[in-house]
């Protein structure tokens, strides 16, 4: 039996408390407030997924709430359908609309993305208000209540249980999703698209998925809203509401599932309390609560930039630290580690025959305007060897690395990998073909555990989708991916740190972690971009020892490095670049004594 993880236990306890509350003699007003918190939580939960976790800001979620609400209102009042048919119609409409809008807006980046969401948020609002079918700004009235197992959910008290069970299921679904192969891909978007793609994640599809799922949660909230209010009009689905939803997610802690609930509860209760108390204090009525709550929320965000939930976690952590042993804090074990006994070996790709050419760069050229950054450079990497590519600052090494790894297109020339021409292919296609890389400036997900970071590297070795993640139908695959990730961590010497936060590792360990992540993809060749940069002497020695080990296990490595001493005792062959040109290549000792190298490279070094 699977142990209940703290998060899941949290859902169970909280749901039990919420469900018991309705049977106590609590005032009707509290029930109404709790119902609205539930509805807002659903939308904020979608925003946590979309904005806090996937890193895409949307001001337009209220429009999806409106789509869910109007669809059910229309189905039930105009076509005589049941609210459940309305729910199906609403979700279908939201998926279609979000699919179409997301396909356009998710391509935007920077401030264009939020502006894009504002644009379609406004468009949908005015669509609701101008369509005769939807009774324009007057809206639709006479919406029937939901009938659940023969019971008409007429009152707020009746709907309360349904709302909170749906919220609990949604929280559980998002928690399950995030602890799955697709969830890690969504989280990887935050680490930069180049990193995610180099691990084989289809970033465009993953962004769209996050967008549609967030919209579905909003649509679900809209459906409940329509049957709670029994009337809909465009006002609650406008831009103001969109901003408020985003505020809820950010104030609660946009990076945390529980932050959605915290934010929705805080803003709803605070707004209501201020609305009651301010007229009494000020002796006059007006919308003062909007001004005061705005100021209070700014203050809160100043004190706690990550939102309310991280503050709660810190307080809980303080209590925990009292009993801690001084070890590094451990993150909860992902589902893949909890079911370790289910693990099966992941499929491995055929490795290249020893000595055969795995990577062949032929007259690669790259120009930036008039500057020739890489000038017809050729070299090859053989199976089971370490080839060093070195050169002084500005020699063109990074550009060469980007040409080989599919980040930059070649101006001319060819790159062949495992017998196939690969220039022009995406990083993702190269990952699929067996090329894995690390980054000059380490690119990890610092808040994620070490082992989950490595599991992202094995993305292409699994295939279960988001639904399997949500339904937990992925246990065997998750266990297999995590067994592989643990094996790679053991291989680089980080086995004992699997559940540490990746961001808490020293730089040298972070570089080892990147190598483990690359190895988790079962690569044919490993491309390392200045792995020794910024490392202390001991860390360099450990890294060199690891690379020697990997070579002895048959791994082929292209090592792009600035540090001459680091590569000398390590690589089998060296290629030296200067001013974009290959000036020398050969065995390390011969290269070291070559006058051209001494002049171009060592000449400038004391
Ligand atoms: N995107 C770009 N646009 C214009 N010029 C560029 C671009 N990228 C690199 N360059 C130029 O190409 C040349 C080679 O740069 P590159 O970063 O590849 O060198 P490097 O050998 O990796 O240097 P370092 O060790 O300092 O990273 C430099 O003159 C650099 O200014």
UniProtKB/TrEMBL annotation:
MF terms from GO for this chain are: ATP binding; ATP hydrolysis activity; branched-chain amino acid transmembrane transporter activity
A cellular component term, taken from the record's GO annotations: plasma membrane
Where are its TM segments located? 12-31, 37-55, 85-105, 112-129, 159-178, 208-226, 246-269, 281-301
> Where do the ABC transporter domain residues begin and end?
359-604
Q: Which UniProt keywords apply?
A: ATP-binding, Cell membrane, Membrane, Nucleotide-binding, Transmembrane, Transmembrane helix, Transport
The record's annotation in CDD domains points to:
ABC_Mj1267_LivG_branched (cd03219), TM_PBP1_LivM_like (cd06581)
Q: Where in the cell is it found?
A: Cell membrane
User: What topology does it adopt in the membrane?
Assistant: Multi-pass membrane protein
Q: Which SUPFAM superfamilies match?
A: P-loop containing nucleoside triphosphate hydrolases
Q: Which PANTHER family match?
A: ABC TRANSPORTER ATP-BINDING PROTEIN (PTHR45772:SF2), CONSERVED COMPONENT OF ABC TRANSPORTER FOR NATURAL AMINO ACIDS-RELATED (PTHR45772)
Know the name of this protein? ATP-binding cassette domain-containing protein
> Which species does the entry assign this protein to?
Caenimonas koreensis DSM 17982
């Amino acid at each position: 039996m699977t142990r209940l993880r703290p998060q899941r236990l949290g859902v169970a306890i909280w749901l039990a408390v919420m469900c018991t509350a309705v049977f106590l003699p609590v005032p009707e007003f509290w029930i109404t407030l709790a119902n609205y918190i539930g509805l807002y939580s659903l939308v904020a939960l979608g925003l946590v997924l979309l904005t806090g976790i996937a890193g895409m800001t949307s001001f337009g979620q209220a429009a999806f709430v409106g789509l869910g609400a109007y669809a059910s209102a229309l189905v039930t009042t105009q076509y005589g359908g049941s609210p459940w048919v309305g729910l199906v119609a609403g979700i279908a409409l939201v998926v279609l609309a979000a699919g179409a809008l997301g396909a356009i807006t998710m391509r935007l980046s920077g401030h264009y993305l939020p502006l894009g969401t504002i644009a379609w948020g406004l468009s949908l609002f005015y669509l609701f208000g101008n369509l005769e079918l939807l009774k324009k700004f007057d809206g639709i009235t006479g919406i029937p209540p939901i009938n659940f197992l023969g019971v008409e959910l007429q009152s707020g008290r009746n709907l309360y249980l349904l709302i909170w069970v749906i919220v609990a299921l949604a929280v559980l679904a998002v928690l399950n999703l995030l602890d799955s192969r697709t969830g890690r891909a969504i989280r990887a978007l935050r680490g930069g698209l180049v990193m995610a793609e180099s691990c084989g994640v289809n970033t465009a599809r993953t962004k769209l998925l996050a967008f549609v799922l967030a919209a579905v949660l909003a649509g679900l909230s809209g459906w409940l809203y329509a049957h709670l209010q029994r009337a809909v009009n465009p006002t609650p689905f406008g831009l103001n509401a969109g901003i408020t939803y985003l505020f809820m997610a950010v104030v609660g802690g946009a990076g945390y599932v529980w932050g959605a609930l915290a934010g929705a509860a805080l803003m709803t209760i605070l707004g209501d309390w201020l609305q009651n108390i301010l007229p009494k204090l000020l002796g006059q009525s007006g919308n003062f609560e909007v001004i005061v709550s705005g100021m209070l929320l700014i203050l809160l965000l100043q004190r706690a930039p990550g939102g309310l939930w991280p503050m709660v976690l810190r307080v809980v952590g303080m209590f925990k630290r009292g009993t801690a042993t001084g070890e590094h804090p451990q993150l909860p074990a992902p589902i893949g580690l909890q079911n370790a006994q289910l693990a099966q070996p992941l499929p491995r790709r055929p490795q290249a025959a020893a000595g055969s050419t795995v990577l062949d760069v032929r007259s690669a050229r790259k120009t930036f305007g008039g500057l020739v950054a890489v000038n017809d450079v050729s070299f090859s990497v053989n199976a089971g060897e370490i080839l060093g590519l070195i050169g002084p600052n500005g020699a063109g090494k990074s550009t060469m690395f980007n040409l080989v790894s599919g980040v930059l297109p070649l101006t001319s020339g060819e790159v062949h990998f495992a017998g196939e021409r690969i220039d022009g292919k995406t990083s993702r296609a190269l990952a699929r073909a067996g090329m894995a890389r690390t980054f000059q400036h380490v690119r990890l997900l610092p808040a994620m555990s070490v082992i989950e970071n490595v599991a992202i590297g094995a993305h292409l070795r699994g295939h279960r989708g988001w639904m399997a993640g949500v339904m937990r139908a992925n246990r065997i695959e998750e266990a297999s991916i995590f067994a592989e990730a643990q094996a790679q961590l053991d291989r680089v010497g980080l086995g004992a740190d699997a559940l540490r936060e990746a961001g808490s590792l020293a730089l040298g360990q972070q570089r080892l972690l990147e190598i483990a992540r690359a190895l988790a993809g079962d690569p044919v060749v490993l491309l390392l971009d200045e792995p020794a940069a910024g490392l202390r002497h001991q860390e360099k020695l450990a890294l060199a020892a690891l690379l020697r080990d990997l070579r002895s296990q048959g791994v082929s490595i292209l090592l792009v490095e600035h540090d001459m001493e680091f590569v000398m005792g390590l690589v089998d062959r060296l290629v030296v670049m200067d001013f974009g040109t290959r000036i020398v290549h050969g065995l390390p000792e011969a290269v070291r004594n070559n006058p051209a190298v001494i002049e171009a490279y060592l000449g400038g070094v004391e």
